[in-house]
Amino acid sequence: MKKGKILLASAILFSSFFATFLNAKTNETTTKDRLDALSKLNKTINTVEKYYVDDIAFKDLIDKTIAGLMQNLDAHSSFLNEKAFKDMQVQTSGEFGGLGITVGMKDGALTVVSPIEDTPADKAGIKAGDVILRIDGNATIGITIDEAVSKMRGEPKTPITVTIVRKGEPKPFDVNIIRDIIKVESVYSRLIKDDNILYLRVTNFDKNVVAKARDAIKKHPNVNGIIMDLRNNPGGLLNQAVGLVDIFVDSGVIVSQKGRDVSENSEYKASKNSTLTKLPLVVLVNSGSASASEIVSGALQDMKRAVVVGENTFGKGSVQVILPIDDKEALKLTIAKYYLPSGKTVQAVGVTPDVIVYPGKVPQNENSAFVIKESELKAHLQGELEKIDDKSEKNDEKIKNKDDKNIISRQKVDEDIQLKTAIDVIKVLKTNIRG
Question: What is the pTM (predicted TM-score) of this model?
Answer without folding.
Answer: 0.71
